[in-house]
UniProtKB/TrEMBL annotation:
Name of the protein in question: Threonylcarbamoyl-AMP synthase
Pfam families: Sua5_C, Sua5_yciO_yrdC
Top-level EC class: transferase
PROSITE patterns: YRDC
Annotated source species: Enterococcus avium ATCC 14025
Length: 337
């Protein structure tokens, strides 16, 4: 199969493919999604096949307007209107209890809930509108590997497996959306992202708990990205705490291991001999934007025996960054057994 790159003036062609049941990757402000018409179960099944993803994982349903959710949702949490008004379109996925039979179990993973998001990307909102149906959109990569933040990342992983990719350059945020569960009484974060716990609490005026449960392989997750290990390159990753860089580099030298460095300029400049992916600046925003790109670049360079990655405090956006990095590193810090 030829995988075609679509431009802005070709969105109608991409939408026609989706209506026909083909798969088309699309851009969002977070990462690129692997799009299939959410109302065509056979197309959705192909998403799992193409990604090599377990079919019990639920998928996020992407809509172009909040009104599109009404066909599926059984009931809305009392805070839904305030949440949607403040955070949609944007990097926030909402989980609702849905009407029986309104979505295929292929989409929901057999659960009585479903996840919905309105992405903040004009091209993709137009694509959904022109398709005339919501789109499922897990990250457009091989399952378990770093998520794609450019069209070329998607092309690298899925060339010849999908019909097309709608290109809109590099994503702005770089990690997947926050997932907020609204199917119970208390809104609960199942996956941290750019809409932070602090932002939600400020708008809602209540405490919003974070579910830190890591789903085992035998369990069905309620939302994507809840597995213990995820986002992993082929090369092993170790997280390095601020005071451990010198010891970690010395350990690698002693053991003859070539290091790939994933770090901010202030850290990377201290170790110029390492194969490096340096974030744009020292901010958590730059680190989050560059995390998946850096893991991919160091992995594909095939130069490093191990990747040393910089850690950040686990608050605000740092919580989302560390959530992904911990899974990429299988929870392993340098110096810990």
């Amino acid at each position: 199969m030829e995988t075609k790159i679509y431009r802005t003036d070709q969105i109608n062609q991409a939408a026609a493919l989706l209506r026909q049941g083909e798969l088309v990757a699309f851009p969002t402000e977070t990462v690129y999604g692997l799009g299939a018409n959410a109302l065509l179960p056979e197309s959705v099944k192909r998403v799992f096949t193409v990604k090599g993803r377990p079919s019990d994982n639920p998928l996020i349903v992407h809509v172009s307007d909040f009104s599109m959710t009404k066909e599926f949702v059984e009931s809305y949490h009392p805070l839904t209107e305030k949440i949607v008004k403040n955070f949609w379109p944007g990097p926030l996925t909402l989980i609702f209890s849905i009407k029986a039979g309104s979505l295929s179990t292929v989409v929901t993973g057999g659960l009585s809930t479903a996840a919905f998001r309105m992405p903040d990307n004009k091209k993709t909102l137009s694509l959904i509108e022109k398709t005339g149906a919501p789109l499922v959109g897990p990250s457009a990569n091989t399952s378990g590997k770093p998520s794609p933040t450019t069209a070329m990342h998607v092309f690298h992983d899925l060339k010849g497996k999908i019909a097309g990719i709608l290109d809109d350059g590099a994503t702005q945020i770089g990690v997947e959306s926050t997932v907020l569960d609204l199917s119970g009484e208390v809104p609960t974060i199942l996956r941290p992202g750019a809409v932070t716990k602090e932002k939600l609490e400020e708008v809602l005026g209540i405490e919003v708990p974070l579910d830190k449960h890591l789903v085992k392989e035998s369990e069905t997750p309620k939302a994507p990205g809840m597995k213990y290990k995820h986002y992993s390159p082929d090369v092993s990753v170790l997280m390095i705490k601020p005071g451990d860089w010198g010891k970690a580099i010395a350990w690698a030298d002693t053991n003859g291991k070539k290091v790939g460095l994933l770090a901010t300029p202030k850290i990377a400049d201290s170790y110029p001999s390492a194969d490096r992916f340096v974030f744009e600046d020292d901010s958590i925003e730059a680190a989050t934007r560059g995390l998946f790109s850096g893991l991919r670049a160091l992995d594909e360079a095939n130069q490093a025996d191990i990747i040393f990655a910089e850690v950040f405090p686990e608050d605000h956006l740092g919580l989302a960054y560390m959530n992904r990095l911990k899974k990429a590193a299988a929870q392993k810090y340098f110096g810990e057994k």
